[in-house]
Specification:
By secondary structure, this protein is mainly β. It contains one helix and 16 strands. β13 and β14 form a beta hairpin.
């Protein structure tokens, strides 16, 4: 549908009539709105809002578009990514765009500072989320491998918490202190 905005004070946030759709007329040089527009991430970074228009979820376009609210309007950054992003995050004063195969990192002013593409030495990543430690270690949610800890030298370890290793579990049961 699009991005909605409401003032923090003087509005009843439970009342949807207090919310305003951004770009309701779907003007071509502003953030998209209307049927078929899906946004999967909205973050505040460096005094600006960023929204990911997840075009890969709703049409044949392979690449998403990241939009930045400057205070007076929305602009397509064009600087951020050429990928399908599952999430935008802010970690340690860095904007992190979580792409399918890795993380793209941006400093203030949309300055590209690097990317990390993960292969784990045995298979390409299919990321659904990721965060960074201040030492560059990434904690990743991978659709094929589960929960991983990836290091700056492109090595990784699969972390198996006390539970199923994959999302392919269709049913679980419990009896006599045993999980089946």
């Amino acid at each position: 549908m699009g991005i909605f905005m409401a003032p923090l004070s003087g509005a009843n946030l439970d009342d949807y009539s207090s919310w305003t759709l951004q770009n309701p007329n779907n003007v071509s040089d502003s953030i998209p709105s209307g049927p078929g527009q899906e946004f999967n991430s909205l973050v505040y970074f460096n005094s600006r809002m960023y929204a990911n228009n997840a075009r890969h979820l709703t049409n044949s376009s392979n690449n998403d578009s990241v939009w930045e609210f400057t205070g007076s309007g929305w602009i397509n950054t064009h600087k951020i990514g050429n990928d399908q992003f599952s999430r935008l995050r802010v970690n340690h004063n860095t904007l992190v765009a979580v792409g399918q195969n890795g993380l793209e990192l941006y400093a203030a002013g949309d300055v590209f500072i690097g990317d990390s593409y993960y292969t784990y030495g045995f298979s390409a990543a299919v990321l659904s989320d990721g965060i960074l430690n201040n030492d560059g270690t990434a904690w990743l949610a991978d659709k094929n491998w589960g929960f991983l800890k990836a290091y700056p030298n492109n090595t990784a370890e699969i972390l198996v918490p006390n539970g199923p290793r994959t999302k392919n579990v269709f049913s679980m049961g419990y009896s006599n202190n045993v999980i089946w």
